[in-house]
Design brief:
Elements: H1 22-26, H2 40-50, H3 63-66, H4 113-122, H5 131-139, H6 142-152, H7 159-171, H8 179-185, H9 194-204, E1 223-224, H10 238-241, E2 250-251, H11 273-282, H12 306-317, H13 322-325
Antiparallel strand pairs: 1-2
Helix pairs in contact: 2-6, 2-7, 4-7, 9-12, 11-12
Length: 334
C-alpha cells in the first residue's frame, strides 16, 4: 500500500532558468510568478502539452503548429492557418525570452504567459476548441494525469494547471547566444565581420533602430506606430485600451533571431529584411496617426544608402542564435 500511486509524495524538482551571467546586469531578473514556480516536472509537462494536438478541436494542431522551433518558435506565413483552414488576422509572434516580457500579443492584451497560453485554445481562428473538451481528453490519459500530479500535486486536471505548465515551458525558451552576443558581451572581436560591425553602428546611430529595439532584448516592449499606413486597418493597442493615442500602435517585437521569423510586421506585409530596412529608409508614412516620436521629423525615412541598408541587414542576421533552434530540450518529446 505504501508504494501505491495514491500515496506518492508531491516533490517537484526546482528548475533554474539558464542564461548568461551578464543578462541580469543589462536586463534584470526574469519575471517568475510566485504561484507558478519553475520545476523540472512542470517544464516537461508543459513541453508535452505545447506539442499535444489534443488541444485542438479536431486533434490536428498544437501550439507548435504555429510556433515552430526552426523559425524561433514563429510561423513562416503572414497569417497562421488554424483548425478547418481558418486564417488568422495577425502575424504570429516568436516565443523567445518571454520570461522578461510584461505583456503579450501584438496588442498587449494579456499581462502574463499563463493568460497568453489560454487564448489560442479557444480562438476560432486557431485551435478552435473548448477547455472542457481539452480537460476531458487529458483526464482520460493515465500517463498525463500522473505528470500533472508530479508537477502540481493534483490528479484533477483543469485549464489553470494546463496553462501554468505551458507557461513554464515557454519561459525556458531563452536565446542569448548569437554572434552579436559574443562580440558585445564576451569580447570576441572576431565574432562579427567588418560589414556586420558597420551595420551595428548604423543600428545605433543613423538608422535610429536602437531607440525602440533596445539592447540586449532588442525590444523596449513599448507599443508604437512605425508609419506603415495613413489609416491603419488594425486598431492594435487602441483596440484594447480604447485610448485614441494607442490607435494603430503595436508591441515592438524583438529582433533576436529576426532572420528566422519572416514575414514581418503585425500583418506580415514584408517578406524580407531588405524590405523592412527599405521601409525605414524611405517608406514611412509621415502622417500616420500616433506616429512614434522617434520617427517624427524624418519625413519618409532615415535615408540610408544602398550600402548602409546592406550593412544593416547583415548585422540583423548576426542576431541569429543557431543553438536555440537546435536545442533538443525544446523539441517535440513524442
Amino acid at each position: 500500500m505504501a508504494c501505491s500511486k495514491d500515496s506518492q509524495s508531491f516533490e517537484p524538482t526546482p528548475l533554474n532558468l539558464s542564461y548568461p551571467s551578464w543578462v541580469e546586469q543589462y536586463v534584470g531578473k526574469p519575471h517568475l510568478p510566485a504561484d507558478n514556480p519553475l520545476t523540472v516536472e512542470g517544464f516537461e509537462l508543459g513541453r508535452r502539452l505545447f506539442y499535444d494536438t489534443r488541444l485542438s478541436a479536431d486533434g490536428s494542431m498544437s501550439c507548435a503548429s504555429c510556433h515552430q522551433q526552426q523559425y524561433s518558435f514563429d510561423d513562416n506565413r503572414a497569417f497562421s492557418i488554424g483548425v478547418d483552414g481558418t486564417v488568422g488576422k495577425r502575424n504570429a509572434m516568436p516565443l523567445i525570452n518571454l520570461a522578461w516580457s510584461k505583456s503579450f500579443f501584438w496588442d498587449g492584451r494579456r499581462p502574463s504567459l499563463e493568460l497568453q497560453a489560454h487564448d489560442p485554445v479557444v480562438s476560432p481562428s486557431e485551435l478552435k476548441n473548448t477547455w472542457p473538451q481539452v480537460v476531458a481528453r487529458l483526464q482520460a490519459d493515465p500517463e498525463i494525469v500522473e505528470r500533472f500530479f508530479r508537477a502540481f500535486g493534483s490528479r484533477s486536471i483543469d485549464s489553470t494547471l494546463i496553462v501554468k505548465a505551458i507557461a513554464q515551458f515557454e519561459r525556458t525558451l531563452i536565446s542569448f547566444n548569437s554572434r552579436y552576443d559574443r562580440y558585445v558581451y564576451q569580447n570576441d572581436t572576431l565574432a562579427l565581420t567588418e560589414q556586420e560591425r558597420r551595420g551595428y553602428q548604423i543600428f545605433l546611430n543613423e538608422g535610429l533602430c536602437n531607440h525602440c529595439h533596445t539592447e540586449p532584448l532588442f525590444t523596449d516592449q513599448a507599443f508604437r506606430n512605425n508609419g506603415l499606413d495613413a489609416v491603419p486597418a488594425d486598431a492594435g493597442r487602441g483596440g484594447v485600451t480604447g485610448n485614441p493615442a494607442d490607435f494603430g500602435t503595436f508591441k515592438v517585437p524583438t529582433l533576436r533571431n529576426i532572420a528566422l521569423t519572416a514575414p514581418y510586421m503585425h500583418d506580415g506585409r514584408f517578406q524580407t529584411l531588405e524590405e523592412v530596412v527599405q521601409h525605414y529608409s524611405d517608406g514611412i508614412v509621415p502622417h500616420s496617426p500616433n506616429l512614434d516620436v522617434h520617427l517624427q521629423g524624418v519625413g519618409t525615412g532615415v535615408a540610408l544608402t544602398a550600402q548602409q541598408q546592406a550593412d544593416l541587414v547583415a548585422f540583423l542576421r548576426a542576431l541569429t542564435d543557431s543553438t536555440f533552434i537546435s536545442n533538443t530540450a525544446f523539441q517535440n518529446p513524442y
